[in-house]
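Need the bound structure for adenosine-5'-diphosphate, inputs here:
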Amino acid sequence: MTRLIFLGLPGSGKGTQAAILAGLLNIPHISTGDILRNAIAQVTPLGQKAQSYMDRGELVPDELILDLIRDRLNQPDAQNGWILDGFPRNVSQAAFLEQLLQELNQACDRAINLEVPDEVVVVRLLARKRPDDTEQTIRRRLEVYHEETAPLIDFYRERSVLSSINGDRPPEEVTESLHHLVNG
Ligand code: ADP
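Answer from helper R.:
Posting the output first, comments after.
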């Protein structure tokens, strides 16, 4: 049973690594970004509400995310572990998650911070060409990360579950370090 939270800048590779690790561990990879992008593609009410925030590189309001996470963690496949990617993204989401996990009688094993310098992720994101990967949006997403999400590094360090991994290496090496971390 493994329950992991992935932290890292946009472009740090956390989505890629979370998917690989979830496959290896046979647990669901829960990406709030993917859930929101699907909602936008399917033009659901959630997608319609989220789109303008995502286009600007802002976080979508917590009220759009919290019920979604509660429902997802209550699904049968999430009872055997999970990897959260893109959630929590600010301190209030982390506080909500802590409360929710208590209610579910679960606990997160580790919060893994995938460390990559800002200059490196900018280059990676500009090469990736997702619709929200314009230069202006990237700049805003990095700002939002430093302001809202980076405080979670201390949040999880204080709870003694933080691990850091150097993400500025070839993807296979990063995967190997992660694998080692969760199995060791
Ligand atoms: P990245 O980490 O590259 O920015 P994500 O797929 O994780 O990519 O997120 C894309 C966008 O989705 C974010 O910029 C934000 O607008 C929105 N988003 C994803 N997760 C959350 C969340 N937990 N809270 C608020 N907004 C979110």
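Comments: The chain has a mean pLDDT of 97. The two ends are 14 Å apart (CA to CA).
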